[in-house]
Amino acid sequence: MTGGAAHGTAEPRGEYILPVRWAEDSGLDEFVHYLEELCAWIPVTVVDGSDAALFARHRALFPAAVRHIRPAPGTGNGKVTAVMTAARLSGAERLVIADDDVRYTAESLAAIVNHLDDADVARPQNYFTSLPWHACWDTSRTLINRALSSDFPGTLAVRRAALQATEGYSAVLFENLELIRTVKAAGGREKLLPDLFVARRPPTSRHFFRQRIRQAYDDFAQPGRLIAELALLPAVAGLAALPHHRRAPAVFGLAGAALALAEIGRRRHNGRSAFPARTSWFAPLWVMERALCIWIALFLRVSGGIPYSGTRLRTAAHSPTELRRRHEGKLHPNPSASPFDSQTREHT
Fold first, then answer.
1. pTM of the entire structure?
2. Which of 143, 186, 212, 234 registers the highest number of CB atoms within 10 A of its CB?
């Protein structure tokens, strides 16, 4: 990818959209350094929902090349509102959307932009740059996802035409899944890239604990997975009822199955280059976490939804059937109109 182009000049190869909404500025120096690197590679828009004082401080510290704007008014998931605010202002056809903890290199950024040559939305694979205990724990979830199907990262690349055709996507909880399903419902092609590794800074342990229930709630958008996870706690309770001489082998068998599944995910698509072996060993802990958290998420669901920024979100993501009803044919009305294969390239 060539150097970044200023906003408002000839159409750039792509644009980087970065939604932020911070209550404090910890880690700001490192973030500003990352922005400086990004601006050398691609035009950057930061959509900043922080309070007025922090917004002013960010404006003073961010590189001059960054387009620093407020999100438009909106309800629901503020990240979706921020992304669509930037997308409507963008002059680029290829948009890279990333959380504030994602860290591309010049090479991985160029790769994700180039993958939109033959796709409408592209999904890489995140990994943590360092691995404190809670990052190992969360990585085991990633590995199980890779073993069963694919993982959802904190970054995507999408063609602006896809967002324009559907007039955006709904501000639900699991916003990345909603974006992908919306583009596919309109006739677009998703490209899975489980061997394109994009770094992500690990969360604090406090943030990690805050995310446990929210991540479980996402599975209301994936009914098959939801049913399997709801069955985990009764299964564990059933183990407790076994005679002692059978209980220990059954517990070790369940833990071993979780570990083996994570290791399969770690070995797929060159995963060993990004995920150390010790991350697989946390899989039994993650399975026990999800066995409990999914029932808490169910309680929140029936009581009105999960708390989010002073409100409640009930919908994790809309079903593919519902989104096809709304958007089918909007992007590529018939097969001959699409320059891409409309089928997702699944890695299973």
1. 0.91
2. 143
Length of the chain counted residue by residue: 348
Q: What is the DSSP letter of 149?
A: S
Q: Which residues contact 119 (CB under 8 A, 6 or more apart)?
A: 188, 189, 190, 191, 340
User: Which tens digits make up the pLDDT trace of 275-312?
Assistant: 999 999 999 999 999 999 999 999 999 999 999 988 99
**Same domain for 147 and 65:** yes
Query: How many degrees, rounded to 5, is the angle at CA 85 between CA 189 and CA 101?
Result: 75
User: What is the percent of the chain with per-residue pLDDT over 70, rounded to a whole number?
Assistant: 92
Q: How many CA atoms lie within 13 A of 114 on its CB side?
A: 9
Residue 54 lies in a domain: yes
Instruction: Please spell the DSSP secondary structure of 157-170, one letter per residue.
Output: EEEHHHHHHHT---
The CATH number that applies at residue 147 is: 3.90.550.10
CA dihedral sign of residues 190, 191, 195, 198: negative
With respect to residue 107, please indicate whether it lies within any of the assigned structural domains. Answer: yes
Same domain flag for 285 and 221: yes
